[in-house]
Here is the input.
Amino acid sequence: MRLGEIVVDVTPLRSSRDFRLVFATQAISMLGTHLTSVAASLQIYHLTGSSVQVGLMNLVLGLSLLVGLVAGGVLADRVDRRRAVLVTRAVTALVIAGLAVNAALPDPRVWFVYVAAVLAGGISGLGGPAMMAATPTLVAPGQLAAAGALTTLTAQLGGMVGPSLAGVIAAGPGVALCFAIDAAVYVVGLALLAPLPALPPDGPVEAQHPLKAMGEGLRFLRGNQVVAGLLLIDLCAVVFAMPYALFPELGTEHFGGGPSTVGLLYTAPAVGSFFGALTSGWTGRVHHTGRALIGAVAVWGAAIACFGLSPNLWLALVFLALAGLGDTASEILRRALLQHYTPDRLQGRVGSLWLAQATAGPSVGNVEAGLVARALGSSSGAVALGGLVCLAGVAALATAMPGLRRATLRGPAGGGPGDGGPADGGPAGGRSVEGGSADGGPVEGGSAGGGPAVAGPPLDGESTEGSVSRGEFTEGFVPRGKPAEGSSPGRRLAVDGSGTPGDRARGPAVGGTGAPGDRGRTDSAGSRRPGSGGAGRAAAAGSERSASADPVD
Here is the structure.
């Protein structure tokens, strides 16, 4: 394999101006997010002298973020996603500016920090799913993995640079400057995102009750083996093999060190994650994406188990770095598969569930690790056991969900019953359907009792890598021929070469193309390290382990 096929793939940056704007916004936003997260925690501790207050503030932030994400998923599937992102970011900028003013007062108010945490978490959560749902419309289908890797890279850089920079600024000019810089970053982000085209969801928008709309997303998840498997396999990893809550005890008791040793334990996974993002070029070229994902999560579980069994610090750090590398690979693949197998009209709701899991999952895992360590009387034993349970869970899911094993980013997201293809007008890529969706469920225009999906012949001119998916288009590739039967009215295939990136394909195909083709902190998105502000992985970066949608930005 050539070096160019290993290092991070920057094709989305070269081919899509709109993605370049989003990437630049996310890169600077991650820096600002960590400035505010660290500054808020430092300010609360300085004003109250209580670590409990710091924890409560971050709990409030995390809960409001979780509520915002769930509501934001419904919003992202109803309104123009560009507008949702711009409005929520503008309001959040005002909240952060308020924190800067409060910090500059002679007697800052603690209650205002709590109120700001509620507002910032909730409003940012509203915009997070919209940002994540917009990504597949900004890049070609074959570039989803590369786009996810670039988003993860911004999360890793922000996670490594942001907290240290916040500490330096807080120790010098003060926390007010941290808040002010973050507010300014939001304004710059608004200027960068303003040129984006309108990004409405595909297809007609139904006037559903929000709870009914979210129920539709849950039903899709339950009936789509690939997407359900993506969430379950990550839940298995973060609930059973999340060791961060045990790092202080392991660093001081098991390895006989002090604060510096504990710091190394927290840093090692981030280093591995950053290296994994830099060497992620293979993720967009692998044929058996589902199998690669299963392998990456297995690497995480095995590395965590070996970390728990490590007799010395340096060997433990190697295994933690390996765990971070596997985590980043799994995040990139999960994000790409989630966006590939989810219909555009459900991207917001499904993405919000993914980001919500990225927010809550690690917290549950850390509590579980603490309880198991207390029950066993050994923190290292609890970590090793958690890694082994994770491996068992991955093996069980891989066996029980053949659709997850067969999942691929190569070609249309179609398949047999249970494999998941889009269920709103036929499988992705304009493949024809006979009475049912790719996952065996009904589709628009087909009867609920119809036959299984049928993968039709390739369109004349259809490519094998980066082929047309979900009605989106690869840049420089125009399929020749008519739209496939069974395509929904909201998705079309171009029949001439007039389309440009950023244009949105709407209505039946008569000419022209649409826009070319994760995971906060999608989140969820980034690494499995805890966020500086404690709002879960989704608060750390727009990836799931740093959620790409960046819910707290």
